Amino acid sequence: MSNALPKIAWIGLGIMGSPMSENLLKAGYDVTGFTLEREKLDRLAASGGTAAGSIAEAVRDADVVITMVPASPQVEAIAYGPDGILENARSGALLIDMSSITPQTSVDLAKAAKDKGIRVLDAPVSGGEAGAIEAVLSIMVGGEQADFDQARPVFEALGKTIVLCGPHGSGQTVKAANQLIVAVNIQACAEAVVFLEKSGVDLKAALDVLNGGLAGSTVLTRKKDNFIGRDFKPGFRIDLHHKDMGIVTDAARNVGAALPVGAAVAQLVASLRAQGDGGLDHSALLRAVERLSGARI
């Protein structure tokens, strides 16, 4: 064989999917993609990939099928049905779903795929758009060890921290915990920003020194400039974080875990969305605090 690397089909070329698929192309993989936006398919082709006209066409000859779509309903829409992945991928293929969805959806998908001879990993990611572009994502995986071992080289072209967390659905459970921590962290930073500004302190100086101590975090490092410049161009949209807070509060209820602070932040995210800010970056939680504090928006 001239190229020993597995042939990859990539479904979903959004804010995350486009740069991730491009990192696989840079690593020498043959990538055939399908997505709903024509310009994203053109972008893939311009980067050396192949644009497919349908899911069926994209997955037909693939060894590995990777999906990166917004939520459970989209995963179900592309996986099931006559035009979906399970009906059209070849037996023995490996399906890696990198979307952030409910753990139960991942468990159900793995079960349905097994009947078709298709192996599945749930492999949601953390690191946002910047992490996707820089190939430094944290990838949390659920599934079988053998499938994880086979997928590792692919994951290594996309991220830096790659961990098998347990059986099917475990990756999604860890991702839900990730989204809980991130939302609470952004909320705390947003409250601090409004407090500092109303106190007349130099915000940049304050955030620099805070980030050097115990209050420092990846969230503050990545979002500091968003807060200072009120730049809420989406790296990760409030709409998606709203979906994720629903996943974590629901999953926690199912296992009997109390999330009192998480529940409060879930409501703040929901309120921001209700006020029309769903398309903004999740650092726009700052706007909700400003509204509550009577600050100008």
From TrEMBL:
The keyword Oxidoreductase applies. GO terms for molecular function: 2-hydroxy-3-oxopropionate reductase activity; NAD binding; NADP binding. It comes from the Bacteria. GO terms for biological process: glyoxylate metabolic process. Residues 7-166 form the 6-phosphogluconate dehydrogenase NADP-binding domain. Pfam families: NAD_binding_11, NAD_binding_2. The keyword Oxidoreductase applies. InterPro entries: 6-PGluconate_DH-like_C_sf, 6PGD_dom2, 6PGDH_NADP-bd, HIBADH-like_NADP-bd, HIBADH-related, NAD(P)-bd_dom_sf, Tartro_sem_red. The active site is at K175. Residues 169-288 form the 3-hydroxyisobutyrate dehydrogenase-like NAD-binding domain. Keywords: NAD, Oxidoreductase. Belongs to the HIBADH-related family. This is 2-hydroxy-3-oxopropionate reductase.
